[in-house]
Specification:
The protein has 108 residues and is an all-alpha fold. The chain has a domain at 3-77: Serine Threonine Protein Phosphatase 5, Tetratricopeptide repeat (Alpha Horseshoe). It has helices at residues 3-17, 22-34, 38-51, 57-104.
């Protein structure tokens, strides 16, 4: 078990004793974010902020939201590029078909 998983287990134990332990909520969020689980981290930041709205979890939530936005933008960029490649390939294929049809004397 990795050190982040051990930390998460320990935060879970602390939260089982005191579900309003803001530091444990925030730190579990940080550990989840370190594992790349920004969505899970935000859940714990929100829990911490519900108890203490001025907690550092606010800054951490902002960072996690920024990470999610970056991931979404990267995905959208990839999908746009993928769609562009498919559409340009389709045009090339249809051009080739028309060109071939002309060679053999058939109509489009």
């Amino acid at each position: 078990m990795g050190s982040l998983q051990i930390k998460i287990t320990n935060y879970d134990k602390a939260l089982a004793i005191d579900p309003h332990f803001v530091l444990a909520l925030n730190n579990k969020g940080l550990s989840l974010a370190d594992l790349g689980n920004d969505t899970g981290a935000i859940i714990y930041y929100d829990k911490a902020l519900a108890i203490d709205p001025k907690n550092l979890a606010l800054d951490n939530k902002g960072a996690a939201l920024g990470n999610l936005q970056y991931s979404l933008e990267k995905l959208l960029s990839h999908l746009k590029g993928s769609r562009h490649r498919k559409s340009s390939l389709g045009r090339e294929r249809s051009y080739s078909r028309r060109h071939l049809n002309r060679k053999v004397g058939t109509k489009e």
